[in-house]
UniProtKB/TrEMBL annotation:
Pfam assignment, any one: VirC1
Protein name: Chromosome partitioning protein
Top-rank taxon, per record: Bacteria
Gene3D superfamilies attached to this UniProt entry: P-loop containing nucleotide triphosphate hydrolases
Length: 227
């Protein structure tokens, strides 16, 4: 079953939010999903524990994962559930290397900032090293997070630079939405939020579904190319 790894060597880029949003969309579509929290800060495990009564039955959150347990956790989950999503610590360490080695797709979240782009390049280099080590192509995509309607010159320059370097970009971004922050404050999923909770939750749901569709299409394309 597909293993999707969220990796960045920089914090604050929306890694955990992206992982949780994807997991919620897949589970809402009836696909049992395991969400592995390998971040020492345990943002996803904390969310699941704090709001345990509102976690979907088919969304399984595993916390306390480290370099010694990450491979077994991924392999066991992949044998049981249609989707496995792994959220990593914001650093290039052994846990990240092990997780990437098991990935069908690595997502590299970043904002439209040059510092984020520089760090994304480090992740790409790590993925390419793992690809050589395991003699298989590991698919990856940059995914822009916390995106707004304003397209700055900096963002245009970064996109152009990534394209020139042949670094693929996911054709959907995770936008800046109040609902995505509210998940961690109010609990439950974005599908539970109402207009009284946040402004325009439907817009966030539509964006989340768009992102998930882009991810599943990428996985299908990669599978077809490998066949």
């Amino acid at each position: 079953m597909p293993v999707i790894v969220l990796c960045s060597t920089k914090g604050g880029v929306g890694k955990s939010t992206t992982a949780l949003v994807l997991a919620q969309v897949f589970s809402a579509a009836g696909k049992a999903t395991t969400l592995i929290d390998a971040d020492p800060n345990q943002p996803l495990a904390t969310w699941a524990k704090r709001f345990s009564g509102n976690v979907p039955e088919n969304l399984h959150v595993q916390g306390g994962i480290n370099e010694e347990t990450i491979v077994d956790a991924i392999d066991t989950a992949a044998a049981q559930h249609p989707f496995v999503i792994v959220d990593l610590e914001g650093s290039a360490n052994l846990t990240a290397s092990y997780a990437i080695s098991r990935a069908d797709l690595v997502l590299i979240p970043m904002r439209g900032k040059q510092l984020d782009a520089d760090q994304a390049g480090r992740v790409v280099a790590l993925i390419e090293r793992e690809s050589k080590a395991f003699r298989r192509r590991i698919e990856y995509r940059v995914v822009f997070s916390m995106a707004t309607a304003l397209v700055t010159k900096e963002l245009k320059h970064i996109r152009a630079t990534l394209e020139q370097k042949g670094i693929p970009i996911l054709p959907a971004a995770l936008k800046e939405k109040a609902a995505f922050s509210a998940m961690f404050q109010i609990g439950g999923t974005i599908f539970d939020l109402t207009d009284e909770d946040v402004s325009n939750p439907k817009s966030a749901i539509d964006n989340a579904k768009e992102l998930a569709l882009a991810v599943t299409n990428t996985l299908k394309e990669a599978e077809a190319a490998a066949a």
